[in-house]
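tokens incoming
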């Protein structure tokens, strides 16, 4: 494919048919709540409709606490008004007062597709399964991380969360109204502001962060079911399972036998808890725009040293090794290669070839977790690459020539140097464009 050097008009953005990007929603963050624990009963929740009776808008006083709930602590900031540039966020009815005991999230069943009613019924019937909650689960790309986002019915999901999170009705009122509740450590680590962008694509919407609140293990952020529909997440592709007095380690093989050999690579069963379940097959399902749709989903197994092994069938269908200018042979997701090639052709045509150092290229496709975490790096999908590493370390302004950055951005790559916690070596595919 020819690069922009041959066609001065540059790249043409591919039409994706996605909804227009939701505007940035402004507001003040809810103060963090602490981790807690356990016990109770709940049935499968019907997905909330974005057309359901709307939650109270930001700025409206949160209802008082019911029995077993905590009221908003004195001095907690209130929320500002919604700047609904792209239309209002999906909302659902405010959650009723919390009733009954809480539930421990013991197991996670996660598929790349909607689980059928028959499959859910069979899971419920497995000895040792006490309660089951269906939700939508997918990953969104945020600063080289594939964050796990759950789209839930707040009234039901809250009962699986840590005690103090579950008891703060204000958190769940905000989620019902269209905000996100995000793990506090993640907000600090990524220096997130008032909003979380749900996807790599420039058309991906942004949701306001309405609460910093600890969540179920393996879940980084929670939104309401209406957001799940807007993002195109598979409805009900995951189940939280409470095993009551039974050991999750005993129930898990029963669920795996139930699923059978044919579904083993399509549906994963994980024990949730403080320690990483290294024996489980996991599911990677990226959502949030045209890039995510092109990447595809895959199952993967954990290896030592933070490495993962994606399904070989996905690798064969999506990952390619090809020659590109300046860097030579590179291994990336196939959708990256035409745009990377075109960008590097323009770098050469612009007289900037000496600004990229091939011996300091750190690769593209590296299936692994972010160091020190159990969160997939976008390198695992083959849609990120690192250039001129020694002079562009994390947390610095970086030495990379900004004219090279401008070319890469023009060809659909987001630059890590623009993040709050900078990563100037890092470029990731943000949108699909057609070289011509």
């Amino acid at each position: 494919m020819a690069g922009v050097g041959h066609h001065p008009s540059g790249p043409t953005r591919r039409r994706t048919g996605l909804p227009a990007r939701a505007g940035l929603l402004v507001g003040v963050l809810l103060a963090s709540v602490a981790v807690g624990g356990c016990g109770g009963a709940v049935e499968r929740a019907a997905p909330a409709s974005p057309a359901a009776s709307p939650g109270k808008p930001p700025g409206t006083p949160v209802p008082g606490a019911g029995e077993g709930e905590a009221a908003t602590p004195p001095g907690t900031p209130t929320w500002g008004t919604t700047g609904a540039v792209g239309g209002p966020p999906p909302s659902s009815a405010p959650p009723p007062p919390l009733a009954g005991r809480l539930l421990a999230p013991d197991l996670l069943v996660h598929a790349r597709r909607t689980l059928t009613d028959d499959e859910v019924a069979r899971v419920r019937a497995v000895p040792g399964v006490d309660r089951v909650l269906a939700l939508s689960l997918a990953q969104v790309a945020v600063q080289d991380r594939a964050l796990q986002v759950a789209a839930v019915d707040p009234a039901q999901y809250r009962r699986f969360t840590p005690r103090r999170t579950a008891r703060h009705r204000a958190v769940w009122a905000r989620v019902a109204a269209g905000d996100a509740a995000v793990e506090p450590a993640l907000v600090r680590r990524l220096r997130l502001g008032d909003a979380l962008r749900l996807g790599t694509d420039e058309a991906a919407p942004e949701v306001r962060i309405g609460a910093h609140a600890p969540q179920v293990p393996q879940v980084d952020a929670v939104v309401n079911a209406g957001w799940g529909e807007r993002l195109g997440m598979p409805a009900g592709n995951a189940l939280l399972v409470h095993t009551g007095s039974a050991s999750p380690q005993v129930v898990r093989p029963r669920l795996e036998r139930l699923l059978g050999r044919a579904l083993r690579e399509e549906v994963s069963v994980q024990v949730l808890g403080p320690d990483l379940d290294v024996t489980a097959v996991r599911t990677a399902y990226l959502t949030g725009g045209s890039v995510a749709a092109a990447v595809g989903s895959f199952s993967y197994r954990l290896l030592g040293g933070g490495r993962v092994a994606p399904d070989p069938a996905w690798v064969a269908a999506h990952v390619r090794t090809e020659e590109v200018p300046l860097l030579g042979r590179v291994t990336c997701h196939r959708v990256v290669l035409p745009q990377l090639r075109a960008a590097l052709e323009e770098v050469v045509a612009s007289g900037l070839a000496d600004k990229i150092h091939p011996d300091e290229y750190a690769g593209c496709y590296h299936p692994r977790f972010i160091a020190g975490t159990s969160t997939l790096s976008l390198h695992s999908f083959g849609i990120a690459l690192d250039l001129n590493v020694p002079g562009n370390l994390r947390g610095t302004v970086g030495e990379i020539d900004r004219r090279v950055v401008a070319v890469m951005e023009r060809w659909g790559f987001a630059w890590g140097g623009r993040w709050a916690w900078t990563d100037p070596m890092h470029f990731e595919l943000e949108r699909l464009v057609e070289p011509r």
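note: The chain has two domains: 107-302, 318-434.
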